[in-house]
Amino acid sequence: MDQLYSSCIKRLAPETLRNWIAEERDDIAVIDVRDSDYKYGKIPISIHIPSKGFGEDSIQNQLLSKYPLGDTSVYIFHCMRSQQRGPSSARKFLRYLLLKTECKDDLHKLPKVYILDGGLKKWNQVYGADPELMVGIE
């Protein structure tokens, strides 16, 4: 079943996310699922939801309350390298959508779900010097 979820999740190039941020799109949610390594900085528009609790329905509901499903909704997950926690959280989110939202009855309502390619590490390598694209944690 995880292969089914994984096939619905695509990789997103950092350059594409940068372009979307520049366009000031209001239909994207960038979800940072790092745990203790969150202290190393963040993408300014991201929200922090640690991966450890991400499978809980209440967390998923909070995410959907802040970023509701819509015709053009995009959810982008990342961790430090987007190899483990980011993909795992994206799969949990997709599973939740398919089991507990209107998406279960109409797959056309599924939003686009992405993993930020290379995670925050790659993002920082490319955009770390730009304060509009990378900020420290206070």
From TrEMBL:
Ranges for domain Rhodanese: 24-131
Tree of life domain: Eukaryota
GO-annotated cellular components: cytoplasm; nucleus
Family matches, as Gene3D superfamilies: Rhodanese-like domain
GO MF terms held by the record: protein tyrosine phosphatase activity
Family matches, as SUPFAM superfamilies: Rhodanese/Cell cycle control phosphatase (SSF52821)
Protein name: Rhodanese domain-containing protein
Naturally occurring in which organism (per UniProt): Wickerhamomyces anomalus (strain ATCC 58044 / CBS 1984 / NCYC 433 / NRRL Y-366-8) (Yeast)
